């Protein structure tokens, strides 16, 4: 007769087998429809949105909602039984490494939910990290490529630009640069929601 598993091991098995949150890559402008279809199948789906102002040609404007993470919907399910998820209209793939789904941390989902329900203005924002290649988008240096060297508070960054084989450090507004996606990140895709949370709570 095999010994009874310890309480800690039993708890670990229960935690590992429970449904986790995963990010689903979906077709453009299908975020809302896919979330509704998944909910209709009995899954818990999360489709965070933010309010944005759309300006028309005659100067008029109107407020509308848009996805906070364009092209993605979050869903809670068992990865070993993901076929019903994958055949849902609009779903392209489960985000992960290759064919292995990678769950989103519960703390990150909770953080997104808190941001959405807080009432603060939120909007998508490119993720920046030290050592990343960035391109300056405006001003006299528009088009130059540099390396993000450090952060100066919430809105300023230091970019190192190579000119005549010398490095020049510039302190500029972080909204004035865009990240240059590496080939590795393009293949792997987003493996964590933390990068997507960068700058969300504005």
Protein architecture, described:
This protein is an alpha+beta fold and 202 residues long. It has helices at residues 7-17, 31-40, 83-86, 106-118, 183-188, 194-197; strands at 20-26, 44-46, 49-55, 61-67, 72-77, 91-94, 96-97, 100-101, 133-136, 145-152, 156-163, 166-173, 177-179. The strands form four sheets. Strands 12-11-10-9-13 form a five-stranded antiparallel β-sheet, with no helix packed on it. β9 and β10 form a beta hairpin. The model is unreliable at 1-17 and 183-202 (pLDDT under 50).
Rg, alpha carbons: 21 Å
**Contiguous runs where pLDDT drops below 50 for at least 5 residues:** 1-17, 183-202
Q: How far from one another are the termini?
A: 60 Å
CATH classification class of the largest domain? Alpha Beta
Return the domain count. Answer: 2
The named CATH superfamily of the largest domain = NusG, N-terminal domain
E-strand count: 13
Instruction: Report helical residue fraction.
Output: 10-25%
Set down the secondary structure blueprint.
Elements: H1 7-17, E1 20-26, H2 31-40, E2 44-46, E3 49-55, E4 61-67, E5 72-77, H3 83-86, E6 91-94, E7 96-97, E8 100-101, H4 106-118, E9 133-136, E10 145-152, E11 156-163, E12 166-173, E13 177-179, H5 183-188, H6 194-197
Antiparallel strand pairs: 1-5, 1-6, 2-5, 3-4, 7-8, 9-10, 9-13, 10-11, 11-12
Annotation keywords:
202 residues, alpha+beta, 6 helices, globular, disordered N terminus, disordered C terminus
């Amino acid at each position: 007769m095999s010994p009874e598993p310890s309480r800690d091991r039993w708890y670990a098995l229960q935690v590992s087998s429970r449904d986790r949150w995963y990010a689903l890559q979906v077709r453009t402008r299908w975020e809302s429809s896919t979330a509704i279809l998944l909910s209709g199948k009995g899954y818990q789906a999360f489709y965070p949105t933010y309010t944005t102002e759309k300006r028309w040609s005659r100067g008029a404007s109107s407020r509308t909602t848009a996805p906070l993470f364009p092209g993605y919907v979050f869903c809670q399910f068992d990865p070993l039984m993901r076929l019903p998820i994958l055949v849902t209209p609009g779903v392209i793939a489960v985000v992960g490494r290759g064919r292995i789904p990678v769950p989103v941390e519960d703390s990150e989902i909770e953080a997104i939910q808190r941001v959405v329900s807080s009432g603060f203005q939120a909007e998508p924002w490119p993720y920046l990290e030290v050592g990343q290649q960035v391109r300056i988008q405006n001003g006299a240096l528009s088009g130059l490529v540099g390396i993000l060297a450090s952060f100066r508070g919430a809105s300023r960054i230091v970019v190192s630009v190579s000119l005549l084989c010398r490095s020049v450090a510039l302190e500029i507004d972080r909204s004035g640069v865009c990240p240059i996606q590496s080939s590795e990140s393009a293949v792997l895709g987003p493996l964590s929601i933390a990068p997507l949370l960068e700058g969300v709570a504005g």
